[in-house]
Amino acid sequence: MSRPPFVPQLVYFEPKALEYPLGQQLKEKFEKMDLEIKYTTSHNQIRNLPGDNDFQKYRVAKSTLVVGIRKTLKFDTSKPSAEYAIPFATGCMGHCHYCYLQTTMGSKPYIRTYVNVDEILDAADKYMEERAPEFTRFEAACTSDIVGIDHLTHTLKRAIEHFGKSEYGKLRFVTKFHHVDHLLDAEHNGKTRFRFSINADYVIKNFEPGTSSLADRLQAAGKVARAGYPLGFIVAPIYLHEGWEDGYYHMFERLDAELPEEAKKDITFEFIQHRFTKPAKRVIEKNYPMTKLELDESARRYKWGKYGIGKYIYQKEEEEDIKSHLYSYMEKFFPNAKLEYFT
């Protein structure tokens, strides 16, 4: 059974969001869907979410959509494969146990979508002008899984077509959802790299509840390839588990079987090993008390990070083992692919 597209249980509007056409359209859409609608002064101030305890409130928040205005139009510099993060949404309906958004979003795990899309795209145009004639790449999924809500908002579709018409702009994003049909006819002109986060079945089944299955993601990648988009795949987090070598081999094998030959000429991969911080471990154990995620600090090596927070990463020999296996699978099935980084 495929996962149905996300439908929020509860929707909040900032009153000013209704001054924008998209705000009005969403309000009408949600009224027709008979969803509970409330109002808030700011998308950063959602209080009194229903629930008797933190555990329940967290789950309600993850199914709450807040429709607001993005006031800050100064874009963060992105890493490591785009110049800027472009903010169309914040938050995600997935329940990935290991996700870094759990610590960065802290007490605001609800999903936010911004309706001042023209202003955001105008700001992007100014960044492009400053860097012309170099290309400027924008990452639309730094703090959200934008595909997960785009069947409701179509913001991403507008952005794809906007960058498709631009001279020096490129767009990229990544998703764990397969609800891509409305994006297949977008006039992307090859300027958008559509990336999927993929993993061994074991990891998706145990640590990525609320997201699409590997089979559905791969099938969606095939559709996206046939629609002419450049494709990319993030394999993350690469996680050592019993039979991991076979698990990742089968993932590559199934991806190879799903993609048309033409698409394999221009594919990027990003490999990210599992890691965690002490604050992340505390949040994960609070939000997912039954998780099977291995978070034993003594089994890892400690690596100093920026901002004074170190990470627990795999031991050097484990890292080399991961590297040699995944590199060999990529070279076997996708000899023309480009590996953007391994971290």
From TrEMBL:
MF (Gene Ontology): lyase activity
Sorted UniProt keywords: Lyase
InterPro entries xref list: rSAM, rSAM_sf, SPL, SPL_Bacilli, SPL_firmicutes
Signal peptide: none
EC number: 4.1.99.14
Gene3D superfamilies on file: 3.40.50.12110, 3.80.30.30
Designated name of the protein: Spore photoproduct lyase
